[in-house]
Amino acid sequence: MLTQLAIRDYAIVDTLDLELAGGMTAITGETGAGKSILLGALGLCLGERSDAASVRHGCERADLSARFDIAALPAARTWLTERELPDDDCLLRRVVTASGRSKAWINGQPATVADLKALGEHLVEIHGQHAHQLLLREETHLRLLDDFAGNRAAVNELSETFRRWQATRKRLKQLTESGDEVQARRQLLRYQVEELDLLALGDEELTTLEHEQEQLAHAEETLREAQHAAECCDNDEGGVLTLLNQAMHRLDPLPGSDRGALAEILAMLGEARIQVEEAVRELHRFADATELDPERLAWVESRLGEVHRIARKHHVMPEELPSLHRRLQAELEGLEGGEHDLEALRAEVENLRDRWREQARRVGDSRQQAAARFGKAVQEQLAFLAMGKARFEVEVAPRQSPLADGMEEVRFLISANPGQPPRPLAKVASGGELSRISLAIQVVAARHSTIPSLVFDEVDVGISGATAEIVGQLLRRLGEQGQVMTVTHLPQVAAQAHHHLHIEKQAKRDTTLTRMALLDEAGRVSELARMLGGVNLSDRTLAHAREMLDASQQGASH
């Protein structure tokens, strides 16, 4: 569940640190105080879209973080483990700059917004104030029934099989319609691959050939200059060795030649003679090893010419020919392999179609069985919400053509008054009735959710009086199973909460800030009185608020 929410410079909040607990938490405040800010900040941490308007005026960035206790959420821990992230804690952080750019982190590691959204699906379930509008759309009915029936994994598998089936059908159709083009491409590839097979150019061969060609082309010049260099060093008529020996013979008999500066000079000349003698030997060896091979040179130049000719033909650099060879070979193998064999593709299409039909049949059976249970559960909640005479049904009907999520379409039908036939929710005239029906459906859906943290954003709109108190009791019961946060304008709902978070807007000079705080018992009485009687709180209003709070808490304890 959500344990901490930290907000910095977001909207009209400068700094806010909230500690949150299990149970039901009511979130109240005057209209425009910023109740939506709390849910907006949480939404950003869960991967919702951001923009520059998120940043408090005059600030460089908004910094938001949400911490969750995931000890009882194996799906969230598995998600983290699969991505090699620590799974003993769960901290989501989102930073939005004044330019509208954002960054995200999960447990201190950089993450994408898509990662936040994917992980967030395992952490919090949000029922918005416009949920009743979504309930008018039949695709929402199908999703809710599948969640109730526990079909989410099966529907995902069904959709994946459908995707593969349609992709294979498309590939078969393309190959059937473009058979001549494929055959022409296959023939061209065979010719090109055979030509490159004959060339058989190795990955490093081009470099070796170019180096060898340079050596062979300059072999005669190299041999001549090497021999000349050897003669310069070892020539009786003025060669380097002869001159070094003469120098040493002249210095050797001089006084001090066995010590001091002359001795060092003689030693240096001796070392130079040794080096020159070694160089002469190496020059002779190099000259002996240098061969003049015009036939090899002609072959190397012919080979290089063929390499460059084929490279120009394919519009690539010569060194790219080996990789080109592999690519063309792979494409040819693909065209000649089983994947592009029409009979094999036809068999695969039939296999995927049959598999999809079997999976769709199982999902359809599950939907049919769950429809009656779902309808009964919603009917019970409607009776609790003072709509006991209404009749709620879940209609599961066959589709005209298959879609990724199966062969059924689902519609929620309601008969608000006895004797009237059930009609689609969109035909329900009363806004108050629609609000209660919506709440009943959401409560049933929430009870079958695997996510213990639920957020209800003004789902009690259009409800008042005794029904409002019952709504509060419903939400409190849900909170006893996990964590429920509800934004509400109704004191009857707020009085039922285990915890009460109050939000107010404060104006200071030329700035406006929002403050949020958990209320103690006295604070709850004052806030309930405000919700009951407006700005001027009379003793009677305060007494009424105290009575309402006491009655709600005592009733909940029984």
Nutshell version of this structure?
55% of the residues lie in helices and 18% in strands. The protein is built from 19 helices and 15 strands. The model has no long low-confidence stretch (mean pLDDT 86).
Topology of helices and strands:
Elements: E1 2-10, E2 13-19, E3 23-28, H1 35-45, E4 61-68, H2 74-82, E5 90-97, E6 102-106, E7 109-111, H3 113-120, E8 124-127, H4 131-134, H5 138-149, H6 152-177, H7 179-199, H8 205-217, H9 219-233, H10 240-251, H11 260-289, H12 294-313, H13 321-336, H14 342-384, E9 391-403, E10 406-415, E11 423-424, H15 431-447, E12 453-457, H16 465-480, E13 483-487, H17 491-494, E14 499-508, E15 511-518, H18 521-533, H19 539-557
Parallel strand pairs: 3-13, 3-14, 8-12, 12-13
Antiparallel strand pairs: 1-2, 1-4, 4-5, 5-6, 6-7, 9-10, 10-11, 14-15
Helix pairs in contact: 5-14, 6-14, 7-13, 8-12, 9-11, 10-11, 14-15, 15-16, 18-19
